[in-house]
Amino acid sequence: MSAQHTSIEQWFTWWYGPPDQPTDDSSAATTGVAVLDAWYATSRRWTLPVIDQNRFLAPEELRVESGRLVFMEEQFGDWAWATDPQGGDPPVYDRSDDDEPWQPLSPHLSEFLEAYWMFEAVLSAPFAASRARGTAQDIDRLRFQMPCVGSARWRWPATSLQFFRRDRTLAIAMSDDDDLFSITVATTSPADQRIIDAVAEPSWSRKQPSGPA
Fold first, then answer.
1. Is 172 exposed, middle or buried (0-12, 13-18, 19+ CB in 10 A)?
2. CA dist., res. 45 & res. 185, Å (int)
3. How far is CA 172 from the centre of its chain?
4. Which of 18, 45, 66, 81 gives the lowest tally of CB atoms within 10 Å of its CB?
5. Please, are residues 90 and 97 in contact by the beta-carbon 8 Å criterion?
6. Strand locations in the chain (E)
7. Checking DSSP bridges between strand 80-83 and strand 92-95, what pairing results, if any?
8. From the CA atom positions of the chain, what is the Rg in Å?
């Protein structure tokens, strides 16, 4: 991912608020990969799950397959993500089937985790607007309202991903290198729905918490 780098702890605090669990060095993970250890140490300080769309393996669930350390699996499929079993900030690989060889995905685990967390945060946010077949005009309107903070080239869930941030709002635009984009703009803050309203047209799908106002 190419991005304006922000630490995972800074991202979590900005999006979820301050951590609600104390730091516990006595149970720190020792996976052999420094970035993974830092991820586990940071994410356990928030009660809510920071990864929800797919399954991020607990330290005791990590396993080596074909020489790679598997750390995440698709929730309802065969896709898996892995890194090297040892290192500070090793590369990331993925594959869509156990019989497929691992494919290089990202040169650094830290960059992948930052981008993947933004993808998860957008899809799990309580307030959102989305359009499945967005156009270049939609992208122009998004860029006018929110600066792009990074991009990534993946194989799942799309080939090209762009990430946007403004105030307490995140957005993601995904495409498979064509003229149509899947766009979602999201926030955890009711006050920042104004940014969503500035980007989304009335025809876009909307998401917000149910219950009394």
1. buried
2. 26
3. 10
4. 18
5. no
6. 2-3, 55-56, 63-65, 68-73, 80-83, 92-95, 103-106, 127-134, 148-153, 160-166, 169-175, 181-187, 205-207
7. antiparallel
8. 18
Residue ranges in 44-135 assigned as alpha helix (H): 109-124
Query: Using one digit for the tens of pLDDT, what is the confidence trace for 150-198?
Result: 999 999 999 999 999 999 999 999 999 788 999 999 999 898 899 999 9
Q: Which two tokens mark 56?
A: 């991020």
Q: What is the chain's mean pLDDT, rounded?
A: 92
Closest to 95 in 3D by CA, of 75, 83, 79, 74: 79
For residue 30, give Cα distances in angstroms to 2, 38, 47, 116, 160: 28, 9, 21, 22, 33
The angle at the Cα of 112, spanning 64 to 59, to the nearest 5 degrees, equals 40
Bin 137: left if φ > 0, else alpha if -120 < ψ < 50, else beta: alpha
Name the packing angle between helices 109-124 and 8-16 (round to 10°).
10
What the block records as the tokens of 52 is 């929800």
Interstrand relation of 103-106 and 169-175 (parallel, antiparallel or unpaired): unpaired
* Dist. CA 191–CA 210, nearest whole Å: 17
- Residue 3 near residue 163, CB atoms below 8 Å: yes
